[in-house]
Amino acid sequence: xxxxxxxxxxxxxxxxxxxxxxxxxxxxxxxxxxxxxxxxxxxxxxxxxxxxxxxxxxxxxxxxxxxxxxxxxxxxxxxxxxxxxxxxxxxxxxxxxxxxxxxxxxxxxxxxxxxxxxxxxxxxxxxxxxxxxxxxxxxxxxxxxxxxxxxxxxxxxxxxxxxxxxxxxxxxxxxxxxxxxxxxxxxxxxxxxxxxxxxxxxxxxxxxxxxxxxxxxxxxxxxxxxxxxxxxxxxxxxxxxxxxxxxxxxxxxxxxxxxxxxxxxxxxxxxxxxxxxxxxxxxxxxxxxxxxxxxxxxxxxxxxxxxxxxxxxxxxxxxxxxxxxxxxxxxxxxxxxxxxxxxxxxxxxxxxxxxxxxxxxxxxxxxxxxxxxxxxxxxxxxxxxxxxxxxxxxxxxxxxxxxxxxxxxxxxxxxxxxxxxxxxxxxx
Length: 428
Hints:
alpha/beta; Rossmann fold; eleven-stranded mixed beta sheet; 14 helices; 39% helix; protein-S-isoprenylcysteine alpha-carbonyl methylesterase; AB_hydrolase_fold; transmembrane helix; golgi apparatus
């Protein structure tokens, strides 16, 4: 990564089954500390789907857009669904003081960031480059949003994004800021919705996400996407769910089961502020208000914790060989993340490295659970994680990299004073 200021950091480069080598480098972001493993070619040589025709996204004609009345009807039905599920959820949560505090803090947090949320919402609802609520399955929440670049001069790389939300309040629109900003760099984003608790439990969530990935892999060409350049990304609970879906798919594929998409179609996996050994996080979540009883209900009981912990499951000798077909893992975490401690990414990285997987760990010193995903992007200007993602996805595309080099800085969406206050009050 290119740098401009001179704050020294340590970069740890890791070869599978090899010792650590330390080297001094310089960094432009005084808040960042990077741990990396080097890139090397994926040994998986499975055949990828290719296309012969020139691809372009459908023209953004108003006549092709869903009518406003239909949008209102869809929004009303989803509001009714969420309200009904919220009432049911309250029976699980009770009225614990931690939960009450977090609800109040969440309301204040959202109010402070409202200037940015309103701008993003306007783009989400009124931009012709956003295709909302595309159906990918037969369940009520089986919808995804597509964020399309204005430039349709050829097939674009694709990021499949799975939002967080503590397995309870996840929603596809939470990816609208990321979708807007990546689309401005000629990258398509597909933000997947999935059943939350209590509408569904973890196996339902993993199934939904896998089905959404399948839709993208098989249909993104129709929207101008390149089926040979698909990346999977999850944030917080979304990182956990998407990593479970990826591992489950790899196991099914390795054992010769019937599949509708292949892990070979995923160029890389980005896990942002995720937890990958949930059996070690039960007490931590309980102390932060996600009570043991509700969390175990989400995870389908204590006996299922190991099954839905990729860090544990991948070490099972009977399935360890699936590592050979997994894509590269890039795990990103802030060291001041109290919702899911950064050790969650560290230990998963160490397990992947020990098993011979291609993995990279990036730790940002002093960053919280929401800094990397919300506050920093709303601050505008240059931002290291965003620049890293774009450079990684555009690697090898000289024309795209040249455009990135002269791209205008992202605008500030929220005044600095409000961002600082939101950081202090954040319940995450």
